[in-house]
Structure formats: C-alpha cells, structure tokens
Amino acid sequence: MGSQEQTTLATRNQLFYGTFIYPKTLTDLEYLHNTAVAVDQNGTIVAIERDYDLSQAASTLFPRLGWAPDSVSIHSSLASHNQFFFPGFIDTHLHAPQYPNVGIFGKSTLLDWLETYTFPLEASLSDPAKARTVYNRVIRKTLSHGTTCAAYYATKDVTTTNLLADLCLRAGQRALVGRVCMDQLSPKYYRDASAADSVDATRESITYIQSIDPTGAIVRPVITPRFAPSCSAPLMAELGKLAAETGLPVQTHISENEGEIALVKEMFPAKKIGAKGDTYTHVYDTFGLLTDKTILAHGVHLSEEEVQIIKARGSKVSHCPCSNSALTSGAARVRWLLERGIEVGLGTDMSGGYSPSVLEMARQAALVSRHVAMGCAPAEKENKEQKESEGEKESKAKTEGKTSKDGNAEKETKVNKANKDGIDRERAKLTVEEVLYLATKGGAELVGMKGKVGGFEVGMEWDAQLIGLGRDVADGEFEGDEKEEEGNVDVFGWESWPNKVAKWLYSGDDRNTRKVWVKGRLAHERK
Ligand code: GUN
Ligand code: FE
C-alpha cells in the first residue's frame, strides 16, 4: 500500500449511531432513527441496523463483522442538539483559483467578467506560493461547508494544477482536478501557445495526478476544455480523442450567457466544422466531447434539440444558480432538464458564484426554480413573445372581421390557456427533497460516483456530515451568545423532522456542519 493511500485510510472501524437522513429518490428523503451504521477501515459501509439498541453491538454486531470491540470508534448524533448524519455535499463545478474573487463581480456579465476579473487572477496563480495559499484555503473552506467531493478547474499551469491535486489528497477531499485548456481568445499572457502544447500539458497533468492516487480513490484528473470560445477546433478535436483514449471524464461550460452563445455561433459555423447543426451543443458533439462522463456547467439557454443530443450522449448538467444570478446569465430550467432524463447536480461555480456552500446552492436552486415558475426562464420569455405575436395576429383578424362569432367562448379558451400555463409553470418549482437530492446523490452521478457516495447504503462509502441544528429554543435558558454559536436555525421542539430539514435548507450554514468525513476519514471538525 502506498503512503498516499495510508493518509486517506480511516485507521479504525467505526460505528455511527443515531439519526440518519439521506435522499432515497429525487422526491423522497429517508429518515432513520436509532440506527447503527458500521463503517470499516476502508471507509465502506458494511452494515446498517435499524431500530437498534447500541448496547447490543458488542455481543451481536461486532462478532458478526469480526471486529474486536476495542477496535471500534463510536460516534453518536445527539438528539438533544437536533443532530443528524447527512451525505456529504458534491460541488460539481467550481474554479479553485478564482476563490479570492468571490463577491467581486460588480455589474459584469460573463465575457467582460472573464477579461476584467478572472483571467488576471488565474494567470497570477502560476506562482506556487500564491497557489498554495489559495488552494489550501478553498479546500478547507468547502470542507467546512460539508463538501466531500468537488469538481475543480485549476488553471492552465501544470505545476500548480498538480499542486491542487496534492493538496486535495492531503486534506482528504475527493476531487476531480482539471488543468484548463485554452489556446485562443483569452489574453496573450494567459493562453496555451498551441493546441499541441495544450494537449501535452494536459497529458502531463493527467499522468501526475494518476501517479499520486493510482486507484483514483480520492483525486482523479478531468479533461477540461475551458469553453468553446477559448478552444480552437483542433484543440477540441484532440481533447475529444483524449477522452476516448483514456476514458477520463470531461468538464466544460455550455450555453451560459447570450453573448457567449452568439460568439460560439459566429466562431464555429456548422459548415466550417462539419457539424450536423449550428448550436453550441453541436460544437462539442462534433469534437467528441459529449460523453457519459461529461459535466456541462450552466446549460441556461439550451434548446429542446440540444437537450435531446445531451441526453443521447449521456452527458450531465451542473446547475449553478448563484453564478447564473450574479452574472445575470439567466434562470436554468432544472425541472425541464430532469423531465428530459438529464442528470443534474449543483455547482458553486466560484467565483462566478460567490458562495462556497452547496447548501446555499440547494437553497438558490429552489429559489431560481420559483423564478422559472414566475416566467423568468429564457424559454418562458420566448413563449410569451410568441403568445404576444399570436395575440397581435388575432386582434388584426378581428379588425378584419374574421373573429369568432362566440366572444365568450373565445374568452374562456384564453382563461383556460392561462391557467394551464400557470399550472405548467408551477411544476418548475423544486422541493426541499429535490434540491437536497441534487446536492448529494444527483451530484454523485455527475462525478462518476453513482452508488458509491451520496447516500447511506451497505457497500457505499462513508462521505458524510454530522449536522447539528442546536438545542431547542427554551425561554430564558440561554445566556449571551451561547445560542448564536449553535447557528442561525431556531428549532422550537415541535417541528417534524421534514420541517427541521426544511429549516436547515433555508436558514442553515456552516455553523451547523459539525463534522465531515470522506471515505470514513474525519476531514473537518467544527471547534
Ligand atoms: N466560461 C468560461 N470560463 C468560465 C469561468 O471561469 N466561469 C464561468 N462561470 N463561465 C466560464
Ligand atoms: Fe465556471
């Protein structure tokens, strides 16, 4: 066993006891109380005992597992502090080097934001000392918010991209780490010299990352063309071949912003690249970049035709609600994607997004879905415009005397139609259970860890958080700031468990994230 692997191995068998909550399906959370979850030294869940009396463990469970009682650490969730175990969060899209810029975006939109804020900072992180400071901080920060796995973009610099992988491995945070490919459009000071250089540098980084974690248990490389505008056709073609050759995952951005989409249309006309259509999706598809391991960030403005291609290729979408609001990119239609069978996860997209918290992304996903329900999604606007022009035609017809004879019937049809639209849009709203699914189990599908993390079942690995909502509020019991230190959520004691979870989603933060484990190993503890 290599020394790196040892650092990621839990040293003892562990028994977790108490309340466990996890997504069973997109729509339902499982609530298990008085339950014991046994996790072996590899961090794998080997037994789950429901309605279990902990005092029986030494005489029944441990002998069955072949565990000596003194080889086991026991961790209980405290009912008195409204604690429960929840799967670790998966951040399916973020840029580690952009972390110092969180909150700094002014009124910019994607393309000017990249030029003004992002490229200069990313370029400066080829300095290993600066990169170490920033990368250590972003890893610690995301872990403290319960992120047990993250799909990171690094920069174009190989040395510091490899450093990011080293630091993730050391901190015990699961990560996909991608060296960013970009051979055009960006400023000269931050651009690969050629497509060939870009591919060579990518191969170098892949080889390194695979050498430090040969089984890919904690860190894995990911092929990362930044987005179509910053990659030449030859570069994308080579990266598509590399994905086919290595079977590695791919991550990139798609259809985030209207200006970007127009640029892609202009830069990659179907005729020029031999595409079967002239959409953004056709560009990636033409170069073999849409695989069943591809994570596409944003997808705000995708068309029906594009989604069908993405579905056929098995590619996935990372929904980045905070970034899409901050950079005024638009409101992505998550329900619409899910109904078309697309797997969706959540991404902080720092620093397009300003928050390191996937819990916050789940909350914002819920809110953005309500904006979609209120008619703010791009397709909704198109529908409205279409309806308006239909309305114009109708009134023109009326003045020309071609109107329906029964005015009342006509009115009624319009009302029915409006109601139907309202009901259809209502469907866009995502529930507490659904956004928490996207944050965990849904994310696991994106990062290639379906069935491995994102829930609590025998055979899955223990990537988990201990959440504590604090003691119930009781009159006069708390002095000074004592209650504030327990976090922002106030539980009064009469709430059902689903309501406690809803309060956590909408008003919780990292103060509620008491402990975080990755593959059975404690990776963060709130003091
Ligand atoms: N498109 C290309 N690069 C980026 C980036 O760094 N962030 C976001 N949000 N979109 C991009
Ligand atoms: Fe991004």
UniProtKB/TrEMBL annotation:
<protein>
    <recommendedName>
        <fullName>guanine deaminase</fullName>
        <ecNumber>3.5.4.3</ecNumber>
    </recommendedName>
</protein>
<dbReference type="InterPro" id="IPR011059">
    <property type="entry name" value="Metal-dep_hydrolase_composite"/>
</dbReference>
<dbReference type="Pfam" id="PF01979">
    <property type="entry name" value="Amidohydro_1"/>
</dbReference>
<dbReference type="InterPro" id="IPR051607">
    <property type="entry name" value="Metallo-dep_hydrolases"/>
</dbReference>
<feature type="domain" description="Amidohydrolase-related">
    <location>
        <begin position="86"/>
        <end position="374"/>
    </location>
</feature>
<dbReference type="InterPro" id="IPR006680">
    <property type="entry name" value="Amidohydro-rel"/>
</dbReference>
<comment type="similarity">
    <text>Belongs to the metallo-dependent hydrolases superfamily. ATZ/TRZ family.</text>
</comment>
<comment type="pathway">
    <text>Purine metabolism; guanine degradation; xanthine from guanine: step 1/1.</text>
</comment>
<keyword id="KW-0479">Metal-binding</keyword>
<dbReference type="InterPro" id="IPR032466">
    <property type="entry name" value="Metal_Hydrolase"/>
</dbReference>
<keyword id="KW-0378">Hydrolase</keyword>
<feature type="domain" description="Amidohydrolase-related">
    <location>
        <begin position="420"/>
        <end position="522"/>
    </location>
</feature>
<dbReference type="InterPro" id="IPR014311">
    <property type="entry name" value="Guanine_deaminase"/>
</dbReference>
<feature type="region of interest" description="Disordered">
    <location>
        <begin position="378"/>
        <end position="420"/>
    </location>
</feature>
<feature type="compositionally biased region" description="Basic and acidic residues">
    <location>
        <begin position="379"/>
        <end position="420"/>
    </location>
</feature>
<keyword id="KW-0862">Zinc</keyword>
